[in-house]
Structure formats: structure tokens, C-alpha cells
Fold this protein.
Amino acid sequence: MKLQPRQIDGFLKSPDRSVRAILVYGPDQGLVKERAQILGLKIVADLNDPFNAAHLTGELIEHEPSRFFDEVNAQSLMGGTRLIRITDVDNKFAVHLKDWLKSDPSDGALVVIEGGALGPRDALRKQCEDALNAAALPCYVPDERDMSNFIRDQIKEHGKAIEGDAVIWLSQALKGDRATAKMEIEKLCLYVGINQNMITLKDAQSSCGDNGDQGLDDLVNATFGRDAVKSMSTLHHLIEEGTDMIVIQRTLQNHIRRLHQVKVDIEENNQSIELAMKKLQPPVFFKQEDRFKLQVQKFSGPYLRKLLARLCEIEADTKRTGTPSKTLISDAILKLSSL
């Protein structure tokens, strides 16, 4: 079963009872772990319950495949459904999962698998999408609008409010991983203390400025500002810090889409650049407005569409040719920043 984005919330609240295996996958590993935990807690009250829950890794299953079959076929000592958690897994596990799903397993076990950034052709993802008794639940890197909503929701849960400028700044600074964003928001709420209800831009910058993902903004500014030296040094720094290449790619794609949206409103809808920029959601951070205007004026609509198409091709090229995405993205950034 292939879950569409609009189906995910409903599935998390009430998983299909016919499903025996759920693959939670995607580049946002914080969201993968969060959703896998939500699904696991639908089955057991404690994920570490020694009687009703088991945790296996891909490496363990590769060396001892029988261990997986022993766990999924074991009877719960307390009655009900057992939870089998699978982590650190790759496509090799798809063979074992396929054999088990084909055996028409009973509702005695639910397998929840935490996967990485799997493509449509990856065997594990394809197996869970195609099987009638399995489901594949994607977790993509949130864009700035998604992150803005997430930030507001998290701040509200802490019983506080937040200024619009602070939301915009945080949504740009905390891109890529909800788990990291959640920790930063918790730190921010502790930073302002129990006696302050409204969180300001200054609060956000003071609390998250060092750990917010400013390297991504530096990369965007250097790349579209045609500073090849800085763009490449920033890229290498992000890679050394362990930033996922898909996060870098999506950040660049998102920026190009925003530039293109403004360009279309100017050229085709005869709007002023100020009005076109105000329509963006989330809006451009006020300290970035002048730089953003210069970039809109610098690039034509057709060129921006060409850039976006090239970035979308990179993932396909990686799978088709085997060329590392790091090489392809580095080449694209170097060419763009050297124009």
C-alpha cells in the first residue's frame, strides 16, 4: 500500500488492521523515528517491553535471518499483538520481508521498519508499496511553510506565542529535520523562561543562532550571489558536518521555486517585485529582502526553470549512473556560482 501525503495523518491515528508491516522511510530521519514511535505505541505501551516488543537491526537479520522469523511467529506471553521494530535496514531485508508477507501472517505481530531515503526502485520500498498487507509511509524534508506550521504548533504546546518574524527566521534556520527543530524549540522555550509568554526574533536568534542551520542559508546566498569560492567552501563544511545531500538539494530547489514564483508574477502578471514577494509563504525574512530582490532581477524565468529541472534530474542521474549525488550537486553549484 502506497500512502499519499493526505492519507498519512489518518493512518497514524488509525492504521489499517490488514497491514502487517509498515515501512516508515525518507530523508527526514527525525520524522521517521517520530512516526515509527507513534505506530509502535499503538501496539504496546512501552517500546522496550520484553514480552510484547522486539528490536532487530538489519545487520543482525543479515547474519541470522531466522531471528526475524522467530520473532514474527512468536506468541505474545500477555496476549494481543507483538511489535517487531526493525532499524538500520537496507534492501537486503526485502527478501525476508517478502517471504513473510506471502505467508499470509496473522495479526499476532506488526512489523514497523525505519528506512532511509529510499527511491521508487528500491526493493524494500517497492515491496511495501505493492503488497496488500504492507504499507509505505514517506517522511520528506519539510519546506519552509511546513516548518513554519510545525514551529507554531510546537510553541503552542509549550503554552507560548511567537512573533511572525521569529517564525520566519526559525523556519529558514531549522530546515531539514523535525527532530533537530523540536529540540531547538524546546531549548528556546527554556531560554525565555516561564514568565515570558511571547517569543521574539531576538529570543530566537539568541537561543538558536549557533545551532540553527545557517550554513544552508550561507550556501544559498553564496551560490545565487555568484560567489564560487564561498559556495564551495560552505558546501564542503555542510558535508563534513553530516548534512544529508537531499537536504541541500531541496533547499536549493525551494529557493529557486520562490525566485521563479516572483519572476512569473512580475513578467506574466505585471506585478511589482514588492507585491510579488509579499505573496510568498512564508514571506522573505526582512533582512534578506534586498538580496532576494537582486537575485530575482539577475535570473530570467526560463533560466530558473532550467535550473530547477537540472536539480530534479540529479537524483535520477544518481540512481541511473551510480554517480554520487555529492559530485553532481557540487558540479551544479560550482557552475551556477561561477556564472
In short: The chain has a mean pLDDT of 85. The domain at 5-138 is CATH 3.40.50.300 (Rossmann fold). The chain is about 60% helix and 10% strand. The two ends are 45 Å apart (CA to CA).
